[in-house]
Design goal:
The protein is α/β, with parallel strands linked by helices. It is 40% helix and 16% strand. The structure holds nicotinamide-adenine-dinucleotide (NAD) and uridine-5'-diphosphate-glucuronic acid.
Length: 444
């Protein structure tokens, strides 16, 4: 099929590259000419495993990029909206979605024949048949369900494994306003494995499935962080052992041909210095905001956010067990990306921690293997190290914030340097017995 994708970020570009790989003809559209040029030169504008190879194979063949939205929409049968949906003032900000929908509407005004428009951005329930449909109809003078199809197909990929997640999804949620839209979506995903569960529903349910999915992940993380705090307070119990025990329950286990498959790591039950990223914090905020607008106080989800907001304080508390004052103490922050295997720093837990350390007067160095932000207000006055060795040399405190595999070599490196800083493990990936001074989230 001929597909256009409006918004070429983490989701839009991965979607475009993966759809091109399975044989569709894809045009990616972005307002950022730098991204467009890079894609057309088969260069990945983001760090995502497998993406450079997909671009090399498909750019200039089945995949191209442009800033010309109207031409891309005119030339394709199905158009995805994959622009950002940030949270602002405690609720979702739909300005990019609305602007893209209006522009698509103008583009189809004179387009002959039927076309299908599908929202892939995460939008609060009711947006597709509300804001999006109205914007397209107003700008085009056409009618949804008559002149064009309208759908909502949320994306469940995770940064770091986005290409694999898109290619081998755990589910396909296909929301459509009518049978014709569903037929188009079915055709698009025809080549995907038949065993992937497909949920065919209306757009508003599809939107709610996406939010509920992210909200449950955030809830599990805050739950494990709350239990971890209690473990620390009670003593003699380690939250990691507890969560391993919890995770053996049948309901966290996949049964495959009589075999029990339990993830070795407790997925989303790992206590730590908090969840970040461009999705979980903003999506839970958006859901709480939608509740408020509907006269509902979503107390559980508000607590999820509150607990998450307090995790940097837990890291500060652990440092406080060893240091009465952090004034002029050299501190190394390991990890700027919000999670490993990505260059994405949006809402990274590193930033609230850095802000608190600055307030206390610590001397800060930060290091990340991939994320090297040139400008970020919270990094002003923070020395950015080029290597792990450079970051920890001379540090009195080392804080592990992101679960990068490179950081598991910390004990050997400190041995070589002959230093024994306090190590505060915000991800519980290090062996406490390898360090002279060690604190970790969720330990006595
Ligand atoms: P992003 O910020 O990386 O990319 C959005 C892109 O849209 C940017 O490149 C921007 O320049 C472009 N854009 C904005 N307005 C435009 C317009 N009118 N025309 C053309 N391009 C325009 O965002 P993202 O992380 O890819 O997220 C996109 C959506 O997908 C969000 O709703 C997000 O919640 C959702 N989502 C993200 C992930 C993820 O892991 N990042 C996973 C699932 C769902
Ligand atoms: C998340 C969801 O996992 C995806 O399913 C979803 O598609 C995506 O949001 C989205 O809607 O954008 P992502 O934000 O890429 O994906 O990353 P996660 O792996 O969920 O991690 C989010 C944050 O939670 C990270 O800061 C991570 O360190 C933290 N986390 C994760 C924990 O603190 N504990 C855990 O057990 C798991």
């Amino acid at each position: 099929m001929k597909v256009s994708i409006i918004g070429t970020g983490y989701v839009g570009l991965v979607t475009g590259a993966c759809l091109a790989e399975v044989g569709h003809e894809v045009i990616c559209v972005d307002v950022d000419p730098r991204k467009v040029d890079m894609i057309n030169s088969a260069e990945a504008p983001i760090h995502e495993r497998g993406l450079p190879e997909l671009l090399k194979r498909n750019s200039g063949r089945r995949l191209s990029a442009t800033t010309n939205l109207a031409a891309a929409v005119a030339d394709t049968e199905i158009t995805f909206i994959a622009v950002g949906t940030p949270a602002a003032n405690g609720k979702i900000d739909l300005k990019y979605v609305e602007a893209a929908a209006a522009e698509i509407g103008r583009a189809i005004r004179d387009k002959a024949g039927y076309t299908t428009i599908v929202v892939k951005s995460t939008v609060v329930p009711g947006t597709t048949i509300g804001v999006v449909q109205s914007a397209i109809e107003r700008a085009s003078g056409k009618t949804a369900g008559v002149d064009f199809g309208l759908g909502m197909n949320p994306e469940f990929l995770t940064e770091g494994t986005a290409v694999a997640d898109f290619t081998f999804p755990d589910r396909l949620v296909l929301g459509g306003i009518d049978a014709r839209t569903h037929d188009v979506l079915r055709d698009l995903y025809q080549s995907f494995d038949d065993s992937v569960p497909r949920i065919e529903t209306n757009p508003t349910t599809a939107e709610m499935i996406k939010y509920a999915s992210n909200a449950v992940l955030a809830t599990m993380i805050s739950f494990s962080n709350e239990i971890a705090r209690l473990c620390s307070a009670v003593g003699g119990v380690d939250a990691i052992d507890v969560m391993r025990g919890v995770h053996q329950a049948g309901y966290f286990t996949i049964r495959h041909g009589g075999e029990r498959l339990t993830a070795p790591i407790c997925s989303f039950l790992e206590p730590g210095c908090g969840f970040g990223g461009s999705c979980l914090p903003k999506d839970v905020t958006a859901l709480v905001g939608q509740g408020r607008e509907n006269g509902l106080s979503l107390d559980l989800l508000q607590s999820v956010l509150r607990i998450n907001g307090a995790q940097p304080d837990e890291m500060m508390r652990l440092m406080g067990l060893h240091y009465q004052s952090l004034r002029d103490v050299p501190v190394a922050v390991l990890g700027i990306a919000f999670k490993p295997d990505t260059d994405d720093i949006r809402e990274s837990p590193a930033f609230p921690l850095i802000r608190r350390l600055k307030e206390q007067g610590a001397t800060l160095t930060a290091y990340d293997p991939i994320a090297r932000p040139s400008e970020h207000p919270d990094l002003a006055g923070v020395r950015l190290a080029d290597t792990l060795r450079e970051a920890v040399a001379g540090a009195k405190i080392v804080l592990l914030v992101t679960r990068w595999s490179e950081f598991s070599a910390l004990d050997g490196l400190l041995g070589e340097l002959g230093t024994q800083p306090l190590v505060v493990d915000g991800r519980r990936v290090l062996d406490p017995s390898s360090f002279a001074q060690y604190e970790g989230i969720g330990r006595a």
